[in-house]
Amino acid sequence: MTILDHWVSGAAFTGESTRTAPVYNPAQGVVTKDVRLASTDDVAVAVAAAAAAFPAWSGTSLAKRQQIMFAFRELLNARKGDLAAILTNEHGKVTSDALGEIARGLEVVELATSIPNLMKGEYSESVSTGVDVYSIRQPLGVVGIISPFNFPAMVPLWFFPIAIAAGNTVVLKPSEKDPSAAVWMARLLQEAGLPDGVLNVVHGDKESVDAILTHPDVASVSFVGSTPIAKYIYETAAQHGKRVQALGGAKNHMLVLPDADLDLVADSAVNAGFGSAGERCMAISVVVAVGDVADALIPKITERMGGLTVGDGTRGCDMGPLITREHRDKVAGYIELAERDGARVVVDGRGVAADGAADGFWLGPTLIDAVPTSSDVYRHEIFGPVLSVVRVASYEEGVALINASPFGNGTAIFTNDGGAARRFQTEVTVGMIGINVPIPVPVGYYSFGGWKASLFGDTKAYGPQSVHFFTREKAVTSRWLDPSHGGINLGFPQN
Ligand code: NAD
Questions:
Q1: Which of 281, 347, 352, 354 is catalytic?
Q2: pLDDT tens for each residue of 261-314
Q3: CA distances (Å), 121 to each of 45, 134, 467, 472, in order?
């Protein structure tokens, strides 16, 4: 069995740990390789490599760093088909979706090519007589990035292009479930001209994560994953004096007002509920239907679900498998629970006929109506192709429901009433809002992040906030003396 190594100082690194984990092809249900699980000492080697690379890299001109980002952008764009194949192989998402993930990641690389502009400071002349004040932004040092399984390329790309362009060096710990994309991108950056040691990849589980969180030479931690782990990351990294941003889980609601275009709503609910088999932190998992809109909407959603094909991502299907057998069984368990809790399973994805191997981790699109809000089907993040419908009497009841959720990642309103949409964007306690847009992932030059249990820390991913996160500001007060400035004065200068 092939073993996937770490990537440290620009080369494969085996480390001392003998622990490994299996990596599956979820559409075939078979192990395709093993991945190394780093020990604390292995992580220390990667951090040391990043620390050694930092002085030269942070001193490299903005022009050179920019050129490397341009070269990386061109290579990534030219070879995105190869990367998409890796994503489909290890994650299971269909090829078109894998290419979509890469396209969203490329946006951040493109943003990073403008780093000379993004890092510009400010300058105030003559704040006092002959005194000027200006600010400069400097990199932090070694930054840690820990990413989840569901976007093996895009989530690392949310962080490392800006971190690197800003002059930091990186230790990236991708998900051990689909780890190859991270190493592939690190190799590509080397080809683009990135000096060795600037981007290092360590694979691993909790031991490697804890080693990053507690290492004294790691300046910051950027994390994306489930809420309980995000909270743990935030607290542990902060206790160890690090700057930290930890993006957590989600339960995204789509509020449908009676005046909405129900064909557009049905298309959007199906796309946002079942794309990537529901394994998206911005997936819509609850349709909140106001008044009797559900009666007309559910048949439209059901009709569209009937046309969805499930199967091996390389075969042009709409939806692939789930990431592991355990996860598939867990998600299927929620369908059983919905029945027990008195909801109505309108479309049942269990036992779906998939275009793929019998052992693939299949679960078909599932629609559940009248889900009680007391049920764990409503309360938990399911992270699979399960769309719930909750009926409410009014706009106010719908917004109250959304605002009562512990999560606050994304939400959407579907309506043709501009006043209602404007009121919604003001009143809802969620970080990313769609108005007739079901998955409102901001473009690369805005920042991505939720509220409440969907983001621990105060800084979102990519966009302007990431430049702030990956740099520290210095304010310089400067005076060039001439003889007229002599004399003693113990007070603050007044003018
Ligand atoms: P996860 O929390 O299980 O794993 C995320 C990372 O944490 C992985 O690298 C994993 O190796 C590591 N990890 C796992 N257990 C750990 C532990 N006990 N201690 C320390 N580290 C640990 O998440 P996942 O299943 O890989 O990804 C799915 C989750 O990520 C969902 O909850 C989804 O909503 C969330 N997510 C959120 C966003 C966002 O932007 N808010 C984006 C993508 C995914």
A1: 281
A2: 999 999 999 999 999 999 999 999 999 999 999 999 999 999 999 999 999 999
A3: 34, 7, 12, 11
One-letter amino acid at 445 equals Y
What's the token pair of residue 481?
């003396």
| pLDDT interval class at 495 (50, 70, 90) | low
Task: Identify the residues whose C-beta falls under 6 Å from ligand 1.
Answer: 146-151, 155, 173, 175-176, 205-206, 209, 224-226, 229, 247-250, 281, 381, 383, 409, 450, 454
pLDDT at 484: 72
Cα separation, 441 vs 432, in Å, equals 7
Dihedral (Cα; 459, 460, 464, 468), 10-degree rounding:
30
| Cβ neighbours of 429 (radius 10 Å) | 14
- DSSP for 15-57 reads -S---EEEEEETTTTEEEEEEE---HHHHHHHHHHHHHHHHHH
pLDDT at 427 over 90: yes
What percentage of the chain has pLDDT greater than the value 70? 99
Amino acid at position 474, single letter: K
| pTM, two decimal places | 0.97
Give the DSSP letter of residue 355: B
